Amino acid sequence: GQQLNQSPQSMFIQEGEDVSMNCTSSSIFNTWLWYKQDPGEGPVLLIALYKAGELTSNGRLTAQFGITRKDSFLNISASIPSDVGIYFCAGQGRSGNKLVFGAGTILRVKS
Amino acid sequence: SAVISQKPSRDICQRGTSLTIQCQVDSQVTMMFWYRQQPGQSLTLIATANQGSEATYESGFVIDKFPISRPNLTFSTLTVSNMSPEDSSIYLCSVEAYGSDYNEQFFGPGTRLTVL
Questions:
Q1: How far apart are CA B86 and CA B62, in angstroms?
Q2: Average of pLDDT values for B82-102?
Q3: pLDDT tens across A51-110, in order?
Q4: Which of A44, A100, A101 to mutate to test the interface with B (most CBs of B within 10 A)?
Q5: C-alpha distances in Å from residue B32, one per residue of A79, B21, B42, B70
Q6: How far apart are CA A74 and CA A24, in angstroms?
Q7: By CB neighbour count within 10 A (0-12 exposed, 13-18 middle, 19+ buried), where does A82 fall?
Q8: Are B107 and A35 an interchain contact pair (Cβ–Cβ within 8 Å)?
Q9: Which of A36, A58, B29, B112 has the CB geometry, 3.0–4.6 Å to B10, for a possible disulfide?
Q10: Which of B1, B92, B104 sits opposite A42 (nearest CB)?
Q11: Residue A15 near residue A109, CB atoms below 8 Å
Q12: How confident is the model at residue B101 (pLDDT cuts 50, 70, 90)?
């Protein structure tokens, strides 16, 4: 089945630093989504991407839909303590509405 | 975005028993899904809850173990049957908004299940 490779697995950064994480797949996706999950909560949608090559920002977050449709990255600029959490990428392919999730990136921020 | 609530938020259950989890949305939605998130893991789709018909299950999940109901466009239940400790997970309901041009899925807060 479809799988997403998300990296890095975890990051421990200094407050104020920029962060970058990415997802790759051997399959083509029509939609890429980035979610953040806080402890004890459900994932919250951060950014949705619908077109190959699309670059979208949401505050300090920027994400891009790779031109090949097989990858996406998420950047967080000037990290703050509340950025701590687990970030998941998810892809949606041609076959329907099913989401395939990456393994997640655990982000820790040192203040 | 839709507001999604789940009940219970958490439970501790004995082996061999069953638990029914409820998902309520504040607006009509076309698609409802149930996911499982095992400890320290990512999310795995269990099934798509179809309104008025049987749910569509993913490989590795069966109706006898995870019966699902969806009586209307705002409500669904997932039952975890004959539980074992391996069923200890977070169970998440998600929805795709009705009439949206794009396929954005939103998640409920999850139900944290511990099976002893």
A1: 15
A2: 85
A3: 999 999 999 999 999 999 999 999 999 999 999 999 999 998 864 578 899 999 999 999
A4: A101
A5: 34, 14, 19, 9
A6: 12
A7: exposed
A8: yes
A9: B112
A10: B92
A11: yes
A12: low
